[in-house]
UniProtKB/TrEMBL annotation:
It comes from the Bacteria. It comes from Cupriavidus pauculus. Residues 221-295 form the Transglutaminase-like domain. This is Transglutaminase family protein. Keywords: Signal. The keyword Metal-binding does not apply.
Length: 382
């Protein structure tokens, strides 16, 4: 089944976006609420393919948790031609809050701090993001075009760098060179890496959350490499970078069911556990190209009870589609790695797509919404 039979995208005009307006990580005079500017809703009303969602993150901690801090990821302001954040607002009674960015990847968050419980009441914070998104489809069968989106040389260098859990030397480089031996252009090498990752990984349901993205540990297993999306797509990114191809993870969350017939590749309503890491690579003449080998493995494992063989038509359709396209039922927070949480005093986290928190009792479990005390919901409004 051809990927383009599964995904037909309408052309649309670009959307203008206002300044990000992000405060420094240690902004003076923090307040209990705030907003960030975004694109105007009128900018997308007459453009085809856009859908608008309101995402709400609610945190409730017991009074005894104070003093406490939480860090809530904020959706990316503008990503390519497929995502625009229209508005961001937050409120946390009795807390000090501030918008912050950290690292070299424009990782946006709201930092909330309660020095004490307000009048003995529970500690509450609410963050709302209104986001416009649409499907992506890059025609990989077309010849490279001089009119394709171009990325700056500085940005491409950034997405060739190693990270703590994704080195580009040693076993990672050795593996990348074996996969791409004899291939002389980025597109062909990236295709080979994608197919290799699909063939040599397996989604493991017992892995918590989205995994950790420790690619060296995966490669040292010596067999089929199990994991979740941050592991499998992180492996694709690390191998691509080691082969000299700019690549990046995109950390986000699913916000709607799939309109393409994939039960495993969507979530609506309560999306507290719907986080998903996607990936993409850059090729001159095409721009940034979607790649999601992890979701191929998710379809194989979870589309029907008991799973599907890799030869099944639905798995083959996902495999074809997810190199070059992805469905616009998912929102990206950032492309960041080794993210320092301002004011935490702890080591950087590998990535930020879950709420993080610290209380008087210690670090909260980001992967357990109920135990942590957060809920994320999504509603389509346009």
């Amino acid at each position: 089944m051809d990927r383009r039979d599964f995904l037909r995208l309408g052309a649309a005009l670009p959307v203008s976006v206002g300044a990000a307006g992000i405060l420094p990580a240690h902004a003076a005079n923090p307040t209990s609420s705030g907003t960030l500017p975004g694109a105007r809703a009128s900018d997308i009303e007459n453009a085809s393919g856009w859908r608008v969602y309101e995402m709400t993150t609610e945190v409730t901690l017991p009074p005894a948790a104070a003093p406490a801090r939480v860090w809530l990821p904020v959706t990316a302001q503008q990503v390519g031609d497929y995502q625009r954040t229209l508005a961001t607002a937050w409120n946390a009674p009795g807390a000090r809050t501030r918008a912050a960015t950290t690292g070299g990847y424009d990782v946006r968050m709201v930092a909330v701090e309660w020095p004490s419980a307000p009048a003995g009441e529970p500690l509450k914070a609410t963050l709302t993001n209104k986001v416009a998104i649409r499907d992506r489809d890059v025609d990989l069968g077309a010849a490279p075009s001089a009119r394709a989106p171009r990325e700056s040389a500085a940005t491409l260098r950034e997405y060739l760098r190693p990270t703590q859990l994704m080195p580009t030397d040693g076993i990672v480089r050795d593996t990348a060179l074996k996969i791409t031996a004899g291939l002389d252009d980025d597109m062909t090498r990236a295709r080979a890496i994608y197919q290799w990752v699909v063939d040599n990984t397996c989604r493991e349901a017992s892995v918590r959350g989205c995994g950790t993205g420790d690619v060296v540990a995966m490669l040292k297993t010596g067999g089929i490499m199990n994991g979740k999306c941050a592991d499998i797509n992180g492996l694709f990114v690390a191998l691509s970078r080691a082969a000299g191809i700019p690549a990046r993870d995109a950390y986000g969350v699913r916000v709607d069911t799939s309109a393409l017939g994939f039960k495993a590749l969507g979530k609506a309503g309560d999306i507290s556990k719907a986080q998903h890491c996607r990936s993409e690579f850059y090729a001159a003449g095409y721009g940034w190209i979607p790649a999601d080998p992890a979701d191929v493995r998710k379809v194989a494992l979870e589309e029907v009870p008991g799973g599907l063989p890799m030869t099944d038509s639905k798995v083959r359709a996902a495999r074809a589609m997810l190199l070059g396209a992805w469905e616009g039922n998912w929102v990206v927070y950032n492309h960041g790695h080794d993210v320092a949480l301002p004011g935490s005093g702890a080591a950087p986290v590998p990535f930020l797509m879950y709420p993080n928190g610290q209380t008087v009792a210690g670090t909260l479990d980001s992967l357990d919404p109920d135990k942590f005390g957060y809920r994320i919901t999504s509603t389509r409004i346009v």
